[in-house]
């Protein structure tokens, strides 16, 4: 069997398993699986469904492996065809271009397991586990340490890569080790020291390593009611200070210390400013909201507009925290 790719390349997938699937209209369409796995490969999968901005084009190829073997098979599949790989966690810090992404997108959302060890206080979790769910689960058990993370709608893998943080705590503070997979399929365990952590940064950004698992150090034995109250308080604080009512990626820009990006944008008079369906939030100026029907290009152009306006007023070029994937037109 031969599959034609959008760019005109042809990849022969004669080794792939296919099977016929019935649809409501009884039209049969072949489902393609990674060799030796039950992991389906989707072609031209819309990524707007998999990012918190709800924008972006399609992935040329898309898989969401459920285990390490399928993940390794996905890397092999991409390597054999010489196509690029992009890793997607919960897509809560991503702006995917309207033109979509070439190559293989690997979503970690189905890589799931968690193990709380009461002897050591360590929590070992798969990359696709949800950070807020872990924060609530830890609170229910009376384990301290993750209260700050309850409002960060990402995965474990995304948090490890981004050094996600809030309320003066961050991933690096809690991390004992991260297991990563290299493009040749080899696993390695890295310590925070080896990950080069600083503010919302790690050495994993822009690299070809995939985080498969992480171990965090928590503090068991506290009163669950107390931990739960602190967790709820953090969540409530965010709900009153940040706009959760429209799609966004959270803070768009890094804070250029000693300033906060939100304050600079607000002082530049940009709250409420809108391009297409993308708007600078009234509640928090470092958030750009998809007010409905926004394209990735609207958000991109608003980012550029903010950067230029803040540069003119304060001589500071705001650096995006959001990761932009795909191609964007420079002419806005
Ligand atoms: C409403 C809202 C509030 C937010 N608040 C905060 C906040 O308070 N603090 C904060 O730090 N962030 C915040 N964010 C941003 C975002 O949630 C974090 O950056 C989060 O850590 C991203 O995780 P993710 O799984 O969604 O990663 P994605 O957005 O899917 O990916 C982010 C980057 O990590 C890479 N990546 C993801 N998973 C892996 C993996 N397993 N292996 C290798 N690379 C990987 C991706 O390729 C990409 O480069 C917020 C976002 C929203 C929408």
What's the SSE blueprint?
Blueprint: E1 2-4, E2 10-12, E3 17-21, E4 29-33, E5 40-46, E6 58-63, H1 68-81, E7 85-88, E8 94-96, E9 101-107, E10 114-117, E11 122-126, H2 131-141, H3 156-162, E12 165-166, E13 169-170, H4 171-174, E14 175-181, E15 187-190, E16 210-217, H5 224-241, H6 261-267, E17 274-275, E18 278-280, E19 288-290, H7 296-314, E20 323-325
Parallel strand pairs: 6-9, 7-9, 8-20
Antiparallel strand pairs: 1-2, 3-4, 4-5, 5-6, 10-11, 11-16, 12-13, 14-15, 14-16, 17-18, 18-19
Helix pairs in contact: 2-5
Characterization of the model:
With 332 residues, this protein is α+β, with helices and mostly antiparallel strands. The protein folds into 3 domains: 2-107, Uridine Diphospho-n-acetylenolpyruvylglucosamine Reductase, domain 2 (2-Layer Sandwich); 114-240, Uridine Diphospho-n-acetylenolpyruvylglucosamine Reductase, domain 3, CATH 3.30.465.10; 243-325, Uridine Diphospho-n-acetylenolpyruvylglucosamine Reductase, domain 1 (Alpha-Beta Complex). 24% of the residues lie in helices and 26% in strands. It has helices at residues 68-81, 131-141, 156-162, 171-174, 224-241, 261-267, 296-314; strands at 2-4, 10-12, 17-21, 29-33, 40-46, 58-63, 85-88, 94-96, 101-107, 114-117, 122-126, 165-166, 169-170, 175-181, 187-190, 210-217, 274-275, 278-280, 288-290, 323-325. It has a 6-stranded mixed β-sheet, covered by helices on one side. Strands 10-11-16-14-15 form a 5-stranded antiparallel β-sheet. Strands 17-18-19 form a 3-stranded antiparallel β-sheet. The protein is globular, with a radius of gyration of 21 Å. The protein starts with a strand and ends in a 7-residue tail after the last strand. The model is unreliable at 1-26 (pLDDT under 50). The structure holds flavin-adenine dinucleotide. Residues 52, 87-94, 108, 127, 151-155, 157-159, 161-162, 164-166, 200, 204, 210-211, 244, 248-250, 323 line the site of flavin-adenine dinucleotide.
């Amino acid at each position: 069997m031969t599959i034609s790719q959008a760019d005109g390349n042809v990849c022969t997938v004669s080794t792939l398993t296919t099977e016929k699937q019935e649809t409501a209209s009884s039209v049969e369409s072949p489902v393609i699986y990674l060799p030796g796995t039950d992991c389906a490969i989707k072609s031209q999968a819309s990524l707007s469904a998999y990012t918190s901005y709800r924008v972006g084009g399609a992935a040329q190829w898309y898989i969401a492996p459920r285990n390490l073997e399928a993940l390794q098979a996905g890397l092999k599949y991409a390597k054999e065809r010489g196509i690029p790989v992009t890793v997607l966690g919960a897509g809560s810090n991503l702006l995917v271009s309207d033109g979509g992404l070439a190559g293989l997108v690997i979503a970690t959302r189905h890589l799931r397991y968690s193990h709380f060890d009461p002897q050591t206080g360590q929590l070992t979790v798969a990359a696709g586990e949800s950070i807020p769910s872990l924060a609530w689960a830890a609170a229910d058990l009376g384990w301290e340490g993750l209260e700050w993370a309850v409002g960060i709608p990402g995965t474990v893998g995304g948090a490890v890569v981004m050094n996600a943080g809030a309320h003066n705590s961050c991933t690096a503070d809690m991390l004992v080790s991260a297991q990563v997979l290299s493009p040749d399929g080899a696993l390695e365990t890295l310590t925070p020291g080896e990950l080069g952590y600083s503010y919302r940064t790690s050495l994993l950004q822009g690299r070809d390593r995939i985080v498969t698992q992480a171990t965090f150090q928590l503090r068991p034995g506290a009163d669950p009611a107390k931990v739960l109250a602190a967790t709820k308080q953090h969540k409530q604080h965010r709900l009153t200070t940040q706009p959760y009512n429209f799609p966004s990626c959270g803070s768009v820009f890094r804070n250029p210390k000693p300033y906060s990006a939100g304050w600079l944008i607000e002082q530049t008079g940009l709250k409420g400013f809108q391009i297409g369906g993308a708007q600078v939030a009234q509640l928090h100026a470092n958030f750009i909201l998809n007010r409905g029907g926004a394209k990735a290009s609207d958000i991109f152009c608003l980012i550029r507009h903010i950067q230029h306006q803040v540069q003119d007023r304060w001589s500071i070029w705001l650096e995006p925290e959001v990761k932009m994937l795909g191609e964007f037109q420079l002419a806005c």
